[in-house]
Write a structure and sequence with these properties.
With 110 residues, the protein is α+β, with helices and mostly antiparallel strands. The protein is 28% helix and 27% strand. The protein is built from two helices and six strands, in the order ββββββαα. The longest helix has 20 residues.
Length: 110
């Protein structure tokens, strides 16, 4: 997962805020404390939240913020919000990963 910001009217290139793998995230349901530089995937009754900090930001003005998710990131988030389904559909995701692993790099999705 990659999060970046770039100027709204004057684009001087992207400012990277975070570039981490969701598989590194610590999944939890208790939201009381945070350790620095640990990516948290917090499961709440209303959904999923991602937290990481502290991140030094010195942005002023208006920005567009972009969050890029890989297909694997989307799968991880889906499984995080539907833990009761994860065992039932796990084989589907395993088969997909095995298929992608066999593909030549030029044929894989970006």
């Amino acid at each position: 997962m990659r999060i970046s910001a770039r100027g709204w009217k004057r684009d001087s290139g992207a400012t990277l805020i975070m570039d981490r793998e969701l598989t590194e995230a610590t999944t939890r349901q208790v939201l009381h404390s945070y350790k620095p530089d640990v990516l948290y995937l917090d499961r709440t009754p209303k959904g999923v939240g991602l937290r990481l900090g502290p991140v030094p930001l010195t942005l002023g003005g208006r920005y567009q913020v972009e969050m890029q998710l890989t297909n694997e990131d989307i799968i991880e988030l889906f499984l995080a919000i539907t833990p009761d389904l994860s065992k039932e559909i796990e084989n589907v995701f395993i088969a997909r990963k095995q298929k992608l692993d066999r593909m030549p790099p030029e044929d894989k999705e970006e």
